[in-house]
Specification:
alpha+beta; two-stranded antiparallel sheet
Amino acid sequence: MNGERAVLRYLRENGTVQVKQAGRVVRVPVERIEIASVQHFSSRAGDPHFHRHMEISARVWAAWRWRALDTLGARNLNVAVQAIFQREQLRELRPVVERLGYRVDEQGQIRLLRPVVEAMSRRSAQLERNLARIEAEWRTEHPGKEPTARLARLWDVQAWSSSGRIRPRRGCWTTSWRCGRPVSAR
């Protein structure tokens, strides 16, 4: 749960809201923020896949009441928040995996197992099919052109969002964070 704590700390130090004071709009710091974290042990396709999701509430406490988190500020914070969360998760996971005799690369993957996981993963095969379909559609609409790196990244996001069935969330537990204190439920 260090990832969630690091994100809360960062958002408290850097999050802002816009408030009207004395006839002008000013940014004031966030005083209280809530996040929810969910831990899963498998992918939507049922493949073994340990991962966590974190949701940040769009409503924060600032200047004596609940207000909307500044969307421009939140969008700018998003990249930093994702990096902090991933870094802290990797920091927690790396020693455990290395005690088992595996080495974790900078992306948080066990390089030795990557070919096996990809070959056995139904989700990976689904993503490859989605990506091939998206690229084929684009090439049909843009004959003779080559996609940019930015477009390829967009296709990757689209391939991930074009998922198949969504199964019930079994084998997961959630933790809600309020004011920096975890409230766990199983």
